[in-house]
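Box 4.2: Ligand-aware structure prediction
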Amino acid sequence: MENKIVICMPKAARVIIEKLNKNGHEAYIVGGCVRDAILGKEPDDWDITTSAKPEEVKALFRRTVDTGIQHGTVTVVMKNEETGDLEGYEVTTYRVDGKYEDHRRPTEVTFTASLIEDMKRRDFTINAMAYNDTEGVIDHFDGIGDLERKVIRCVGVPTERFDEDALRILRAVRFSAQLDFVIDEETKSAIRNQAQFLKDISAERIQVELDKLLRSNHPEKMRDAYQMGITKIVLPEFDAMMETEQNHVHHMYSVGEHTIRVMQEVPATRQLRWAALLHDIAKPRTKTSDEKGDHFYGHNQMGVEMAEKILRRLKFDNDTIAKVKRLVLWHDYGMGECPSLRSFRKSLSKMGADLFPEYAHIKRADTLAQSMYLREEKLANLEILKGYYAQILEAQQCLSLKDLAVTGKDLMEHGMQPGKELGEMLSYLLEQVLENPELNEKDTLLEMVKERLNS
Ligand code: ATP
Ligand code: MG
């Protein structure tokens, strides 16, 4: 436990700890922030653990919010002296968890006066360290050693810890992906035996951990999640991809291995990593084979349906679902012959120009995760499409009804009645303008309307 690690915490966190100490309470920064600070990473938030009861914490600070008062958490609001911004610090009373049922986090907790009791309830050794300026790092389970060895290891007996809260099984892989750590053998073997308990965990909690895993620097750890039987419970569609071979010149990996490589190649945004994960999700179901090899006709359309189902099941928000569905639908666009500028403009109008930058990321990654066959040509085609896109944007060419130089109102002022016919006229004009952008002038379009009405 002797160590000389010094953590530089924000002034406000120090002020909170000192004030608690002055009033006779123990207090430390704890958990993820201690881990990240020792690793030299800037922590997202600084959590504080204390022997003070929530009421005592509230009495000591001017501004507090009851964030999770039943679990002993009070948010203390402090002003950042440099920026003047208000910042929240979660201050949680030392606690032991109540009885666990169905492998889920308990709803009841009991407060304790002992820091070590609080540390024992935490999931992994690297997350079970506390620190303050007077005592340095408090490390009862050799979290520092595990940080040095790059190991994820349960606090206590792994089987018991996963039995208490099965989400920890997925968290182990999530931390191993964020930190590029291996999972300790005993912990791993418990994961293999107990992965099925994840079925009792709420979709919301699974989503948070899966999302962090996918958006980490090592999304390829999904392979470990598969091998340990985790995805079988939380995302069985992924197992089907891992078990589907692709015998075709364009490919050299199974659908699952290909998917992992696509995830590694796209930026770590939620939409891109989930679109990468799901772009070929329907391949196992659409696979057919003939003398030319395996085919996956219609996998993008069916993929849209499957992606929606999976993301809804995991309780994703509507924006993410809509964007991922569009990317799954369009990921195959631009295969084979390079489209002409005119044909690209029409496709861009259908796709929605806002989608293109993300489409381009997926397309590039998808190509790099295929075989070498025609790779240079595919990448060169993508560059051509990017050039078209820049050109269309630069010229502010019309891509949708809202960019058309006439509106429904204009047409009504020229004698058309509101209704179906007017809608069809606008679509006709858009089609013409997509063919030839120069037509997008008010007078020209009104002339075309007249002609069409008289024909
Ligand atoms: P992140 O940087 O992703 O927030 P974190 O370590 O802070 O990582 P949190 O989920 O914010 O993770 O949890 C904060 C701390 O609470 C953890 O470091 C750990 O000590 C403890 N903890 C969180 N979830 C669990 C759990 N399911 N079982 C046991 N301890 C947990
Ligand atoms: Mg945290």
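In the box above, the bound molecule is magnesium ion. The chain has 23 helices and 13 strands.
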